Amino acid sequence: MKKRRKSARDKGLSLRNKPDEYGVVIKKGKGLIKTALVYPNTYKTGMSNLGFQTVYRLANQLENVACERVFLPDPQPYRTDPTIQSLETGSRLDQFNVILFSISFENDFNHLVQLLEEAGIPLRSPDRNHTHPLVVAGGVACFLNPEPIAPFVDGFLLGEAELLLKPFFDFFAEKTDKTQLLDGLERAVPGAYVPGCHRDGRPFHIQVQYLAHLDDITTASSLLTAHTAFKETFLIETLKGCPHGCRFCTAGYIFRPPRTYPVENIYRAMDDATGKTDRIGLVSSAIADHPDIDKICEYGNKKGFQLSFSSLRADRLDTKILNILSASRVKTATIAPEAGSERMRRIINKNISESDILFAAKRLVESGIINLKLYFMIGLPFEQEDDVQAIVALTKKIKAVFLEESRKKQKIGTITLSINAFIPKPATPFQWAAMMPENQLKKRVKIIQQGLKKTANVNINVESLRKARIYALLSRGDQKTADLIEAAREIGWARVMKKEKTYCNRVIYSEKQTDAFLPWDFIGNRVKKAFLMKEWQQAKAEKISKACPMIDCQTCRRCQ
Known about the structure:
- The protein contains 20 helices and 21 strands.
- It has 560 residues and is an alpha/beta fold.
- It has a domain of 206 residues.
- Strand 19, helix 14 and strand 20 form a beta-alpha-beta unit.
């Protein structure tokens, strides 16, 4: 295996002409399974994704696999040729043996179809023959609900790549006939799902594959580049999952119980970053819940790194973390109250109080972080207009604390609200909830905008409500959704959703009965459906549930 570093002056999306990177793998030789690892979004987004980088590294560690990267074409700043090509050798998608899509978010389902279409590969699995690449997909979005793209995919790999890639490629190498390969894939590879084998309507079950522990695992950047959202930052995952169990969030359920990386593994990753960059990004859904987070930060400081954090809870901002943020010259920090009222935070199981939020804002500004970003959701289950008014009231209270501390510093920054429509997600307690109609969401946005329009230094960003409706369909749909995805390529989503209004309304806007079959029910995640039902009832009763104790499930058995 040979590594190559490219000059920073290089530009473009090919081996000879691409952004500067450390750790690029170039593999040649006969008998290799030529694999296109596709992130169905732009280079900048894909190369910021640790899961994608991990699959790239693991695949190329296999002797019989040559894995190359492909991204959604981006007109600026790198694209010079409309042909979809791999970065490493400039190969077209149809020249690979396997196309492996790594999909983290449902909104990229559309891009999967776009990439296949632009590559001249038949969209539907039954329309492809032995001359076409095998189309495989994995990633978190796939083991939440793969059904909206199932007709386009020959096979899914559901679970963590460390357990799936080697058995899949070993089995692929054994089979010369595509039909035999697909017929036997589920038996040979636990976690594999072949939609074409389940057209008879009989019940079946696919168990998502999870690592039992992370003792021998390190998840960190395989490649460094200046052309990502995290410029020249070496990313290290510290923990998989989140113990807090916010009822809207998949991370707190599909990865339950959370697993922490041993501190020694994280130290080794930091050692590996030495000499490549001076920036370390610690990544997880619950950074401060790693039991050795103080030691990790101390080690990073001693190595001379600037540390940043992907997420921090308002009730976890202690002095050490604030000092690290200040030392790293962070100028913007994020607080995610999610809801304005205590009632709504009980409903969503966001176990932080208003005093926690205000104290966090105060401490952040005291530490020299002059800009705050606040995440809120609207359209949550059981939400009332008073709860939306509470977003305005809480923001004004945060502004008062922010202003008081900023004056002491003689420097006033900006508060930015990010307003997102709630989308019910599979494998969460809110999977049975309905999404709020767009006209009601617009009224809630107006309440917030009107309530804060005279509040200086407060900006409001509202994520597209139209797109949220599409994402809800992609998140909750069954295989019929594939027809809509395909049609939208021709006539656009607005016309498609109007034409299929009855189906879309049923998927998006109807509350589901807990005994009803859901499209993703055949997937076995770590948490039992009965536990999700219990949490759904807890939400209705406006009750907080305890966080996951992060111990062995056989000892706890709370969510089994």
